[in-house]
């Protein structure tokens, strides 16, 4: 077996490598073309990518549950959380704990609502979370009217913008989050259950796994991380404004899929989400250097997202077996008469 074949086999098990290669190539190109990029500028890119990584990890949990699940409420959660932080913390470190608790409670409430709509009522995730986002947008408008000012807690500001030996604190937080998520996915029962449910819900149910709580947990994790991300993002920019979380809607999905998480669920990579987040920020940086107007930048990002999702969808369909296509999306009650051999996990 030659080196290329060996690398191909290894890359199939470590899909994050493609995003990492993309970061390296684009970074080298920008360094040569502009003569302006250095380790310090890379540090700034990683800082911006850290916020995307946090919300991307939450999105990754939802995507891993399968059936094309995505969380479209994350953008509204980020925005509303930033406003809630301003209202509760009021620029004082003494109120920081209250603000953090408020952000967590907001994430738990939104995650519970999304879980009720998707798991309890059976509404498709893309529709349920989009509707939740509209509700949160209304709450954000009301919060915007009640904002007395834009003072930010000094401690929170230091956390969002500070550095340790030149390394952004946010980057450290993001890396620790990726490490913790990787541990959960690989070595915990919840991680194994998440993969099993994402691969084939009918087979998971026949194996004694209750799908509902696993899927619900993924939506709660996504909302809580998005809310905490909004808290930190508001401190980073020094306030809050309407639709401040909007760029993270498509980018969070793109970071997940581009990083190697399968769009049809069942297999996730937190490390890939980190590298893909950096790559997406580099793409935006490149467009800004070229001088593309904001509207054109949105078009390019949309094309990238569509291309990545289309490619991931074709690869995922190619990996599905006839048994998956026949049985994988049936209701649990409809699978009780299916022979066990037809619904074994891959």
Structure description:
This protein is mainly α. The protein is 74% helix and 1% strand. It has 15 helices and two strands. A two-stranded antiparallel sheet has the order 1-2. The longest helix has 27 residues, at 211-237. The radius of gyration is 21 Å and the shape is globular. The two termini are 25 Å apart.
- The radius of gyration over CA amounts to 21 Å
N-to-C CA distance? 25 Å
Strand arrangement within the widest β-sheet reads: 1-2
Beta-sheet strand percentage?
Answer: under 5%
Specify the number of helices: 15
Summarize model confidence as the mean pLDDT: 83
User: Biggest β-sheet: count, sense, barrel?
Assistant: 2 strands, antiparallel
What structural class should be given to the helix and strand makeup?
mainly alpha
Strand-and-helix sequence, N→C?
Answer: HHHHHHHEEHHHHHHHH
Give the helix proportion (percent range). Answer: over 70%
The number of strands is 2
Structural shape = globular
Q: Uncertain spans, ≥5 residues at pLDDT below 50?
A: 321-346
